[in-house]
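In line with agreed milestones, the collection of sequences with tokenised folds has grown. A representative record is reproduced below.
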Amino acid sequence: MNTVIPKIRMGFVGGGEGSFIAQAHHQAAGLDGRFELVCGAFSRDAQNNLRTGNRLGLPQSRCYGTWQLMLETERALPAEERMELLVIVTPNHLHAPVASEALAAGFHVFSEKPAALSLAELQELKARLNSSTGLYGLAHTYLGYPMVWQARDMVRNGVIGNVRKVLVEYPQGWLSQDVARQGNRQAEWRGQPALSGAGGCIADIGTHAFSLAEFVADQAITHLCANLGVHVEGRQLDDDAAMLFKMAQGASGVLIASQVCAGEENPLSIRVYGDKGGLEWRQEQPASLIHRSLDQPMRILRSGTGQSWLCEAATQRMRLPAGHPEGYLEAMANLYGDFATAIRAGGVNHAAPGVPGIEVGLRGMAFIEAAIASHHSDAKWTPLECSV
């Protein structure tokens, strides 16, 4: 007799009208199929909050005016009704405070990145996590792509030899003009240090490039030499970054992150070179992984179910046969899927295997602070120190 496993009841903090990332989270969770949205505190604007909840099919009674009220009320509900997982899709300044209170209230947390406004704030959250029974995940969505896992597997198995060089870049063009003054709400809050933190571009997309480099190369960045820039007059936070870096096992690298590359969309990419060959992956063509070898023609590995030459970690994250495009939502759905498996299995050490957790968040915050320190320093190299 088959036992029906109930869907995981989730609630949102943030995600009112106009939020791209909240919509992506809702769609990705639905794509995985093991989640049910049961409540939300979507906006401080009461009408926006109710309209959003109505659009998502929620009763008015579970559209809360504040996230504090939501945690208090949901915690008091019967166990079979209350929210189990809180998804945080707010501006950055609320990520750590909301996560901390949610964990204390007994809920699991899946948060947008960066995980906090500072490394010190995130270390406090880690202490709260360690004293809780909850799981914590961070939405580094690009680490959910199957061919990113394939690339790391090939690095780990020595296919390209000892890693020597890592080139990672994330150019965007959407902040090439002062769109915050033109009414773009996403640009507006991202330009305010009190809401976004000390980093602008370096925190928003630089952390994605950083985590991708460490994940695929399978080693930590230990030192960097960074230059941050502001190209739009009046902007308070960086909109452009470039740096050299060193890695723990001897590789050197270059990281570029910019939101003023006019005309660019979202071409996050990485190239990793060893003494036997290289790998290249591009987010805008995520189904392809280029493998270059010293003594063989270049080959292109393609994602898709049934590809026996791909590693298990990659194939278990694929849903469709080759030639049927999977993209950003599927990558995020992979994170939700791994999170669901961990929740229903009871969880291990406050983390969900396959999902970036608090350690990735700590590394990311240390990266932001090291990049800013390097920019203001006359020293050639700034250490990236982070104890996780």
